[in-house]
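Continuing the series of single-chain predictions for the mutant panel. This is the parent chain; the variants come on the following pages.
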Amino acid sequence: MKKNIIPTIAVVVLLFTSCSSYFSVEKMKSNYERRAHSTTIVGKMLSTDKRETNIYNAVKVYMNEKEVEHPFQVIALGAYRPFIIPLIRRERPRIEKYYFLRAAKQAYKLKADGVIIDDKNNYRIIKYND
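Parent structure:
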């Protein structure tokens, strides 16, 4: 009986752990731009499409500090950690689809100018010193 407990625990742990590693930046950017510029019937009724377009136009998303042309200061740190049940949906598609949008929404709430995507699921919200 005790011999079967360890393999069973190992299988359960493997089923509920996320196995994501690196994400395609191009895919995340295209998902973000497509979502910001798409219009849907539900989005028109709830006016979420217009809000996401405003977020896209107001907040710039950068991948590192070298891309930012203006002097800036970091006003907040954030992380995107979605609640995922790996048996139903993996973490990778959810992060690829919503990561940039979530970071931009947080920056928009804080009236910031941009977001620097750091490493896996972490970002910095910046405001220009102008």
